[in-house]
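#lab-general

N.A. 3:47 PM
ok so I finally got the sequence cleaned up, no stray characters, all 111 residues accounted for. can someone with queue access submit it? mine expired

B.Y. 3:52 PM
send it over

N.A. 3:53 PM
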Amino acid sequence: MQAISSVKPSDGKTDVPRGDAIEVVFSEDMDEAPSKVPGSFTRTKQGSASPVVGRPPSYDSATKLATLKPSQDLDSLSSYVAVLKSGADGVKTLDGNPLTANKTWSFNTEQ
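B.Y. 4:20 PM
back already:
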């Protein structure tokens, strides 16, 4: 089940402000517990093996919005990959259904 309505920044977006949060809007109610697990929603600098350490993800059930805020500005003029994890330990709907596949998108930061 792909219960994702939109992502921000959009896939391939350039000149993303370095302090901007990554956001995912879902089309249905999500289970808050898995969406708040740090490994279920990550951002990794391209070429790095480890996700960027930052604040844990948050989820607002009223707006169906998951947010991943950086704890400090991302590197300038860099490519990042965002991943919303599927599967048993990934993001799930309120009914317990996981995403059918990881949602992956990339973006580039401003100078």
